[in-house]
Amino acid sequence: MCGRFTQVFTWAEIQEFYALLNELAPNLKPSWNVAPTQDIGVIGARENGGLGFTRMRWGLVPSWAKDQSVGAKMINARSDTIAQKPAFREAFAKRRCVIPVSGFFEWKGSGAAKTPYFITSAGEEPLSFAGLWERWRDPEGQWVRTATIITTDANEALKPLHHRMPVILDRADIARWLAEGGTALLRPCPDDRLTYWPVSTRVNAVKNDAPDLIEAAASSTLF
Question: What CATH number belongs to 5-214?
């Protein structure tokens, strides 16, 4: 499961990490609390080769959907069912992408006692979520591009927080995922790839979007 994440890198950072070929640098607005249905940065293969960066709406809307509200329920796609689910199977076969993130949030506990945690790269580099994208034509005839994050079983490091996690691709596997797809790369990342800590419950409110959302809060036990 992935319901919130951060995209706070600079253009120079992701352009270098992914060797992006955009002719013009996009105007990146950092977000410390990206929520479903918001616009997100997405990386994909360009028709003339190489990788490019664009923006899409978070929450995949199938081409056959009656309206785009269904996207709010399709922010994640399970790796074990995307090849069969009608909402995802065509995108899985033809429209794969990578969603670069600085980190993501997960909650431990239940009800009002839930504690949010911020999860990020132990190596302080972008995390490359495996994703799918789709095109949907609105009633005015305009194309809307949307994307979803693929999830898999949690690795041992994250199991204390949640039983699911995003598929985080190795840097060397990004081109293969975009070109070939398949399920072989849709697995938990190594346990030592990530680090995490408890943060303020202010992240629960979508209106809050500031650097202090990822600062460590008072320590909290996981068990």
Answer: 3.90.1680.10
Provide the residue ranges of all domains of the chain, joining segments of one domain with +: 5-214
Selected catalytic residue, list 97, 106, 134, 189? 106
> Within a 13 Å sphere around the CA of 192, how many CA atoms are in the beta-carbon half?
0
- The catalytic residue among 2, 97, 134, 189 is 2
Contact at 8 Å (CB) between 129 and 7? Answer: no
- Residue whose token pair is 């972008």: 126
Measure the CA–CA gap between 6 and 30, rounded to whole angstroms.
8
Q: What is the pLDDT of residues 144-174, one digit of tens each?
A: 999 999 999 999 999 999 999 999 999 999 9
pTM attached to this predicted model: 0.95
Active site residue 106: yes
Q: Is 2 annotated in the active site? A: yes
Residue 37 neighbours by CB under 8 Å, 6+ apart = 57, 58, 59, 71, 72
Q: What pLDDT, on a 0 to 100 scale, did the predictor assign at position 56?
A: 97
pLDDT in tens, 26-72: 888 999 999 999 999 999 999 888 999 999 999 999 999 999 999 99
Query: Average pLDDT in the 128-135 region?
Result: 98
